[in-house]
Specification:
By secondary structure, this protein is α+β, with helices and mostly antiparallel strands. It has three helices and five strands. A three-stranded antiparallel sheet has the order 3-4-5. Strands 1-2 form a two-stranded antiparallel sheet. α2 packs parallel to α3. It starts with a helix and ends in a 17-residue tail after the last helix.
Length: 171
């Protein structure tokens, strides 16, 4: 045999061995991913069982709401203590005049879940009039999205819900 033929046969054997090893590792990787997701879900259940209602701490023009800072002060020790980390981002594909806010929730066991909310950023107020610039509206939408994603992810109750009636001028 020539050098190159021996080389190619040896290379084919190494590649075949690596493919077999890779294929054999797939069930273990699938099991590890399922175990990580199960640990994520168990920790999420633990965090949610620890939740208490969070008081509204900020007054808007016509309503009261819970600020991101108030949510964070209560929630961060609970979720970090159970192995979670949060990373906020924006994403593509939001409807026109909206910001797609993303929250990547990672767990110490390796599972990550991404939550999203499309938040209007048109600068319009409750009655449809212009109340802020597009830049301000985008920043406001991102902050609003962070606050609402945090509440949704951990199923947080905040004060009494008036279904937006106070903001719309109803009592």
């Amino acid at each position: 045999m020539t050098f190159w033929r021996v080389f190619l046969v040896a290379l084919a054997a190494v590649v075949a061995w690596k493919v077999v090893a890779f294929m054999a590792s797939i069930p273990a990787r699938i099991r590890a991913a399922k175990d990580a997701e199960a640990a994520f879900n168990t920790s999420m259940s633990t965090v949610q069982a620890s939740m208490k209602m969070i008081a509204r701490d900020t007054r808007g023009e016509k309503s009261r709401y819970t600020s991101y800072q108030a949510l964070d002060k209560v929630l961060r020790p609970l979720y970090t203590g159970n192995g979670f980390s949060l990373t906020f981002d924006t994403g593509d594909g939001a409807p026109e005049n909206c910001v797609r806010v993303l929250c990547h929730v990672g767990h110490k066991c390796g599972h990550t879940r991404t939550y999203r909310a499309d938040i209007p950023a048109d600068g319009k107020g409750a009655r449809g009039g212009d109340v802020m610039t597009r830049t301000h509206a985008t920043g406001s939408a991102f902050t609003y999205g962070q606050r609402y994603l945090l509440k949704m992810i951990f199923n947080v109750a905040v004060g009494a819900d008036d279904d937006g009636k106070a903001a719309g001028g109803e009592e």
